[in-house]
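User: Structure please.
Assistant: Input sequence and predicted structure:
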Amino acid sequence: MNLRFVEAFVWVARLKSFKGAAERLHTTQAAISSRIATFEADLGARLFDRDSRSVTLTLRATQILPLAERMLALADQMLQAAGDAAEFTGTLRIGTMESVVHTFLPALLSNFSIRYPKVTVELHSDITPFLRDELLKGTLDCVLTSEEIAEGAIENRRIAALPMAWVASPSLQIAPGPVPFSEIAKRPLITFHKRSVVYRDMLGAGSDPTSLRVNFFSSLAAMISMTRSGFGIATLPLAVIPRELASGELRALDATPPLKPLPVVASIRAGGASSVTEQFSRMAADVFEEFSAHSPPSAAPAATAPT
């Protein structure tokens, strides 16, 4: 059985699109159609119901898809066992939330490129809900997000927990020492999107949500910039602002209750992921450990006097 036909079937099934599968496999839509037609003839079964707008798997195709994914994974593992990781080629499509981009992702990609120098990386940075949807659709191979993905056949690996804190500019003149959330809530708040675990944690602090002046930001860089300006008090991972904390541009408040650490979860498709994707997922946990070991201590916010 020709693995190229199996691969074409898997990607059309995942993306629900012949055009999308052609783009993913760097070929033409006509070539994908030809491979599917031959594969259907080999199996003696129709795999897709097609019209001008959609592609739907037949019942037989839904039964075959897990076997086809397993076949591709086994073929990939066989090549890795017999060959040299440095000779692997292809593209790894990674999705990550911005907190990872600003912490351990550079070291992770550097380590990955050393081990797999011929594999190219396609990086997408977005919020967790969008990244989850793209992984489920099959347009991404691995995502680094803040939550485990319960839908679909997804393998989740919790790899990190980034300490979080309420962070403010010294210009706000907040007194040193413990700061109750009731005091923080009197000022404009800056946080991640409404569906984030950080925002849910904030709401769990006990204040009436309708009384909060919450500003939602999709850009971590914008959050940091607006916090430095004194616009409001932000929920930030401490590992992304070590320079600002060291210079005194920002200070981490000794807030009560404290914010929970931000989880980082690596998610891939169970059974259908390539060995390169699985290695990237495992490598992420190792790199985060190394990153944590060499990062300045930031779990306990410093009670710095205002300037």
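The chain has twelve helices and 14 strands.
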